[in-house]
Write a structure and sequence with these properties.
Number of helices: 10
Order of helices and strands: HHHHHHHHHH
CATH superfamily of the largest domain: Tetracycline Repressor, domain 2
CATH class of the largest domain: Mainly Alpha
CATH topology of the largest domain: Tetracycline Repressor, domain 2
Radius of gyration: 20 Å
Number of domains: 2
Number of strands: 0
Largest sheet: none
Distance between the termini: 73 Å
Structural class: mainly alpha
CATH architecture of the largest domain: Orthogonal Bundle
Strand content: under 5%
Oligomer: single chain
Amino acid sequence: MGKPARRRLQPEARKLEIVQAAERLLQAHGSQVRVEDVVREAGVAKGTFFLYFPTWDDLLETLRDRLVTEFDTAYPLPTEVEGPIDWPGLVASQACAFVDFTLSRRGIGEALFHSDFAERRPLAHNGVLRIAAVIRAGQEAGAFAPVDPDPTARLLFAAVDEAAHAVASGGDRAAILAALQTLLRRTLAP
């Protein structure tokens, strides 16, 4: 008995099958996943993979963009048009959302943000830039201290990222998030 006939798909649907297979595998196995694993999971030939993704890094970049978009869609930043913004509350809720999102996507996150790929292809629009933008907007609204937004955002992002790692390592989530909230509040309080 031969292999079942492969169903014909539009190119974007076939590409999506590869992306979703890679997401599943990276979530489960992290950076250990290779092209061979993805093509087996997606049920496609290796040549098909390279038709859509000339390099492994091209696939990882696509996955990273999807993950960032997923976070931005799930946790959008409010605008003043929607009403007054509680800037300290926004920072606190975004930090908690990032920790929880990171924990829910730990395997794939490690492969995309904490691997040699992340060094080869740094993310242009990242969490640090998002925090810096929130700090600037909060300063303009008079809600935050006159700190330098860029280095402050870098340090705060490191604290948020470390909070996610601490919880993932078995730390008390409530205690870690409470300490993180205190750090954020004290750093940005006017």
